[in-house]
Write a structure and sequence with these properties.
By secondary structure, the chain is α+β, with helices and mostly antiparallel strands. The chain contains two helices and seven strands, in the order αβββββαββ. The protein is 22% helix and 35% strand.
């Protein structure tokens, strides 16, 4: 399954941001998402000099982990990320 199929399955939006003032950096993450590491939540972002590199970097940082959306709200949701999650080729 690729990242876009996974986003459809969990019904979440993948956000890619372009920063022209930071050496043309792209950043990628799921909206309102943190990664669960034991009892702690951690922000994870993918970074790269183009969209594909940013998305693939993000996939590498979330693969086989648990995503937590809207952690401090009643609408909190958690999803496991499969180890087989694929990036953009």
């Amino acid at each position: 399954m690729n990242i876009f199929e996974y986003a459809d399955v969990i019904d979440k939006q993948l956000i890619v941001t372009y920063y022209p003032n930071q050496k043309h950096r792209f950043s990628c993450q799921f909206e309102h998402c943190e990664v669960k590491e034991g009892p702690m939540l951690k922000g994870e972002y993918g970074n790269g000099t183009n969209v594909n590199l940013a998305i693939n970097d993000y996939i590498n940082s979330i693969r086989n982990k648990k995503l937590v959306f809207s952690a401090y709200q009643d609408s909190r949701q958690e999803f496991a990320v499969p180890d087989s999650l694929e990036g953009i080729k």
